[in-house]
Give the backbone structure.
Amino acid sequence: MRENNFVVRRVGPGQPGAADGDRNTALASDNFFAAALLTLWHRVSQAGGSVGYLPTATRQEIAPAAAAAVDEIRAGKRKALVFTQHTDIAKDQLIACAFLVPATIALHSHRAEVRTVIVDPDHQGRGLGRALLGEVDKYASELGIDTLTLSVRGGRGLEKFYEGIGFTEYGRLPDSIRLSPTDSREEIFYWRSVGP
């Protein structure tokens, strides 16, 4: 996909992919990617995004999760799809990211979990989340996955978004996410078949 200078890329251990114009559609899970992922994750957290941390979280608090994600990508345990944007300031700025984690149990080999859908605050509301999840769907299909699952924090309005792109709620866990001693949120679980 190339729209408004955005390019979708699959992140991997550094294997080159097919060319898309003057840029490669693959992106290495190297230290540059790790730093860009941490920066994006921190920006979204600071803006109040439901990405596993409070808005007050520091880069140092988020760094272990970003490092673990990159390690899992390098090991082939986690897939990542990202949108990058070519700007005058940055050759390829990381704008959005979603993780696809295939099940490791043989009886669940047809399933994968979508984790940590992150869109830069400056680019939210432009359809990038929807487009990114469309790319996740395509990638899952190529991997032989036919069922996607995910969970979201309640009270953020994310239910309408995910239901609008075909996910069906299958359960809620009350008080699953504790934002403060007096503010707990439920976790809402969704599933969807891959494809149209």
The longest strand covers residues 168-180.
